Structure formats: structure tokens, C-alpha cells
Amino acid sequence: MVGGxxxxxxxxxxxxxxxxxxxxxxxxxxxxxxxxxxxxRGGAVEWLLAPATPAAASALRVELTAFLRRHAxxxxxxxxxxxxxxxxxxxxxxxxxxxxxxxxxxxxxxxTLVVHDLGPSFDVADLPAPAxxxxxxxxxxxxxxxxxxxxxxxxRGTGKRVRSVLPVTRRIEASFDPPRREVNPLPALDEAGxxxxxxxxxxxxLVVELARTAENRQGxxxxxxxxxxxxxxxxxxxxxxxxxxxxxxxxxxxAQVAECYLRLKSAIDGDFYVISVDDERIVLGNRRxxxxxxxxxxxxxxxxxxxxxxxxxARNHGEAVVLxxxxxxxxDPECQVTVLLGAAAQHNPGGHHYRQGS
Length: 358
Description:
single chain, 17% strand, 358 residues
């Protein structure tokens, strides 16, 4: 690595390549430059490392290599690309002395990594081959040995841009062009107003159709698992909003948990009300589903309520069980939901179980 990075642990392949100590010329043909320009116009996902620390660089490398691994034609190529990312981002963090911007664009066959920093520039062609037996000064030489295209451009003010086309080929992604659903498609035409479908009808249709499609293709259990995960995340945010609005910290009582439920459901156009609350259980009724009558076409969406309610209760009482006693989604006139708290939840085999930290 330029400037010396003797403390780095070298991958076995890196050691083998380093022993070769051979300079590889950078191909600067017009055709290659044109291809790179097209890739950059595709728009990169970008990250800012500020402060630019080794820990931040390491975390970004993990994120980028995971992305490459998901889409690469050959997973073995990702190992080499990960080393290139580590060298280029690590070099900027260690030697630039300021923030580092990293971009990745995979609009072409191969991904382009771009690293901007405020450190001094250099000419790749002027870099000497590393000395035999030395582990210093091998970073950019190693990048080229791994087959990555590399160029460095000085910025007009200060700093430089280092660009590398990574040695990874993107696999051909599956393309889907299914027929339109003809039975009870959403949004329903009677939901349209003078200007067409509104945001609420569109978003409701989007969620319900996603659930219906998952249920048709993967089965009810897979759909419930997917909806439960969404509910767990959304429920956590809704609880935080309730705490912020009430300026509350610490454990929520059963009555406060029930109030939180009513607040979050009212905000999304549900009509929940409290039937009873004590230290062991919360019983709620509901006259109107936030998804409207369309929930009857995707009953698995009820798991969203279960996951939101169960997660909030478990975080505050250690354990919870949610029983969906009655559901508008399956033809009942109203919903009735029972949430068992703490010890009462431990001895109930039915319903959906939730534990703190799960």
C-alpha cells in the first residue's frame, strides 16, 4: 500500500501475487474510457466516511462485498473485489487525512468503485514495483494484479479521485412479467376520485397485493413471517414516537401500552377501543380495519397487528402472547384482540408469542 501499511494481515493469495513483483500497465484505451463514462452516468450509490476511520472502512467493505456477492456471476470473483475495495478505501482513510467519499455503480457488466479524498494525488504509471521481500508499498500493485482497471485523477482544487472497475461480472437477473390479476384487482375502481386514485388507496393496494402475491406463491406461513418482520420494525418506531410525544422513559404500564396501541391505530385510520386492561392482559375491540374491506383478500395482514402489539408488550413486560379472537378479515363484524402480559403469557400455549429482545 502507498505510504506503507505493514500492520495489515495479508490474504494468502495476496502473498502469492506479491511474490511475483511484476508491473502491470494500466490500459488507457479510448474504448475503455468510453465504457467507464457510461457506467458513471448510470448513477452510483454513495457513502461518506466522516470521520474516516479504519473501523468505518472495514464496515463499508463488509457492506459492499455482501452486495457484490448477492449479484455476482461467480462468487470467487468477489474475494478479489473485496481486496481491491479494502486497499483503495483503506489507503484513502490512512493517508488522505480527511473525509472520504465512496461510490459504487453497477449499471454495466462490471461494477465501478470510485473513491474521492482530499489527499495528494499521484500517477499510477510512476508507481515503482515493490521491493522483493518487502510487505510495504504493495497495495496499488496488488490491485492491478487482481485484474482491476485503475486510474487516478487529481481534483482541480485539492484531493483526487481513484476509480477502479472491479473484476466481477454481474449475473443475468431473472426478469418477471406476470399477467395482471383479473379477480378482485386493487385498487378497486370505486376508490378513485376526480383526479384518479389517491395516495391512501394506492398504498393500501400495494401492501395488500404484496401480501396476496406472497401467500399465493409461498403459502400463508411465509406471508405471516414476512408481515411479522415488517410489523416488528414498524411497531418499534411507533413505540418510540409514543414515548417522545409523552416524554416518557422506562417501562410502560399495561394502561400505557394500551394507550400506545390506540394512538398508533388511530393515526392509520383504525377504530380500536379498550374493552379491559389489568396487569395481566389488555383486551381491545376494533370497528374499522386500517386496510378497509380489502383486508378480507389478504387475512395474513392481521399478523401485522399481532406483531406490532406483541413487540411493544414484550419490550415492556418481558413476554407477551397476542390472541386474535375475532377478525374483520375473516368475516367477523369487529376485531377483538387479547394481549397477555408477563407471567400470564408464559402459561398460554395459543396465539403468537413474543419475548423481549426477540
